[in-house]
Design goal:
It is built from six helices and nine strands, in the order H-E-H-E-E-E-H-E-E-E-H-H-H-E-E. It is of the alpha/beta class. It folds into two domains: 178 residues, Rossmann fold; 34 residues, no CATH class. Strand 4, helix 3 and strand 5 form a beta-alpha-beta unit. Helix 4 packs across helix 5.
Length: 231
């Protein structure tokens, strides 16, 4: 069994996602209870999401709701497989940049969602842009991202990776993940920029920030709540 294998329901990564779904399920219920859904349909903007991810959401708990889920990605190379979804779920794929969803009017969706995406969008300017778009396009939001200070970097499974100086990170990529220096190792290193709780509090000052724990360590953070305008 692999630690990171979203096609295996018994993998560590799949179990963590199912645990995370509890919070998302509760937020969907909160939105449904507001009584403000049009035609009893909840519209979800999933930034960087895949249909595979939604295959583990407990739609059966909401038989009275219709789910319209719009995925926005630069490409769909990461969508692992086709999934079987209930008849009350419609997933549409769109090409779009989560840092600039200018074609979407404010509050077009009931919920904006992203799972381990904001740490991949680039530099701080891009991260800030995605945070603002997450809040702008929807009434509620639910965002998950790994913790900078977790001892094992979750993408590369390397120890204390995020806090190391860049030359040592590159060296770890070479030694343990067999990356080819300099092109591949540098590109892989630059593809992830993990965030601290302090940074997330700055980006989402009015949101609820919860810790996802693995034993005594904070593995990742969940940012959620009702959306608001950030200046």
């Amino acid at each position: 069994m692999k630690l990171i294998d979203y096609t295996d329901p018994n993998s560590f990564s799949s179990k963590m996602r199912r645990r995370r779904m509890r919070g998302l399920t509760n937020l969907v219920q909160t939105i449904a209870n507001t009584g403000r859904l049009n035609d009893n349909a909840i519209k979800i903007c999933d930034i960087g999401g895949t249909a595979t991810y939604w295959g583990i959401f407990p739609f059966a708990k909401f038989p009275e709701l219709k789910f319209q889920i719009d995925l926005f990605n630069m490409n769909y190379d990461g969508d692992l497989k086709s999934v079987s979804l209930p008849s009350n779920v419609d997933i549409q794929k769109h090409i779009g940049n989560g840092c600039n969803l200018s074609g979407i009017p404010d509050n077009s969706y009931d919920l904006s969602h992203s799972n381990s995406v904001i740490e991949h969008v680039g530099n701080w300017k891009s991260i800030t842009a995605m945070a603002k778009e997450t809040l702008r396009v929807s009434t509620y939001h639910f965002l998950q991202t790994p913790n900078f200070w977790f001892p094992i970097e979750p993408h590369f499974l390397l120890p204390f990776y995020a806090g190391l100086p860049r030359p040592l990170r590159i060296r770890q990529q070479e030694l343990f993940n067999k990356r080819e220096f300099p092109d591949e190792a540098n590109a892989i290193d630059e593809s992830v920029r993990l965030l601290t709780k302090r940074e997330l509090t700055f980006l989402f000052p009015q949101s609820k920030i919860e810790r996802e724990r693995f034993f005594l360590f904070t593995k990742s953070f969940i940012v959620s709540g009702k959306s608001y305008i950030v200046g």
